[in-house]
Amino acid sequence: MTDLVIRALTPSDAALFTTFQDSPFVGRAAFGHAYTSTADGGEYRPDWSWVALRGDTVIARAAWWGGPGDTEPVVLNWFDFADGEAEAGAELLRRAPFDKEYELIAPAGWRDDPAVRAAVEERVAAATAAGMKPLVERYRYRWTPGCPLPERTGRLTYRPEPDDEVILDVLRRVHSSTLDAHARKAIEGPGGLEAAAREELEFFHWCPSPREWWRLAYTPDGEVAGIQVPAHNPSGPCVGFIGVVPEARGHGYGYDLLVECTRFLVEQGAEFVAGATDQGNAPMAAAFARAGYPVIQEWVHLA
Which InterPro entries match (predicted)? Predict the structure, then answer.
């Protein structure tokens, strides 16, 4: 058998990535997303795009993504391999020099279709063989003008907060008791709760949307109820963050914050609003459903 060659692409041969066709069931291409390299004005950098070849044939590939200003990738979100080449896919992940989370994109309800389920499970198995561990499964939502636009409840008031230290204090309170798997992973690390709060703040600043959009929410008696961050990520308008402080929970305020965030973005001209939550976060999933957000994808995260 021809020796396996694993390497990064270059601007001159980035088209190699597209010589292998993605699964019709799962992955970026399954949602009409074409791989294009930055050399051709696209969003994937050749040196962050790796292939495994036997001879001249691509049998596995992986692309790590990052924002326009990032100096290292943020996430692996394109990974696939030919039938019977799962080990080549796993070896590609072992050799590539990026220790980043894998976001596997799957259709909503993917477990209900045997072919889709097999495609997802094959990729999870290959990533696991490469040393990754399943972290969480998340619902991905997309509000569009064809969905109902929820009415504001009027129960909370919203004010901008220019001081990052005040924002950090609220984030610490939110994450002190959280259902979010990424926050819990950060809390379990060496930086603890402080690291989790600062990671969230860094994400807010990373988003190419105005700092002035961030809002703290207050109850009628002037107490902080939580925080909502309308944002744009590089793909467009999104619910950047929704968080209710522990002492204000039990009143359904997550829904209020989501409605405010949605309507704010629509008022800024958004033609869609993306959102996400962990499948295990039942209160937030219920808020998205109540606000009229349909589930359009399910993402499986491995780290």
Answer: Acyl_CoA_acyltransferase, GNAT_dom
- What are phi and psi for residue 296, nearest 5 degrees? -110, -20
Choose which CATH entry (3.40.630.30, 3.10.20.90, 3.40.50.150, 3.30.470.20) describes domain 155-293: 3.40.630.30
Residue with tokens 């696991």: 128
Per-residue pLDDT tens over the stretch 229-277: 999 999 999 999 999 999 999 999 999 999 999 999 999 999 999 999 9
Q: Which amino acid, residue 216? A: L
- Using DSSP, how many helices (H) and how many strands (E) does the chain show? 7, 12
Spacing of C-alpha 250 from chain mean position: 27
Q: How far apart are CA 62 and CA 255, in angstroms?
A: 37
**What residues contact residue 54 under an 8 Å CB cut-off, 6+ apart?**
1, 2, 3, 4, 5, 88
Task: Give all strands of the β-sheet with 157-159 in edge-to-edge order.
Answer: 4-8, 49-54, 57-65, 75-81, 102-107, 295-302, 134-143, 273-278, 236-244, 224-233, 215-218, 157-159
Let me know if domain 2-131 sits in CATH 3.20.20.
no
SS3 helix, strand, coil % of the chain, rounded to 5?
A: 35, 30, 35
Domain boundaries defined on the chain: 2-131, 155-293
